[in-house]
Amino acid sequence: MDCLVIGGGPAGLTAAIYLARFRRPCLVVDMEASRASWIPVSHNLAGFPEGIPGQDLLALMRAQATRYGAEIVKGHVERLERTEHGFSAVLADGARHGVRRVLLATGTEDVPPPLDLPDRMVAVQRGLLRYCPICDAYEVTGRKIALAGTSSCRVKEALLLRGYTADLSLVTLREPWALPDEERVRLSQADITVIEEPAAELVLEDKALAVRTVGHTWHRFETLYVALGLRARSGLAAKLGAAHDQEGALSVSAHQETSVPGLFAAGDVVQGLAQIAVAMGQAAIAATAMHNGLDPVRA
Question: Average pLDDT, stretch 141-158?
Answer without folding.
Answer: 86
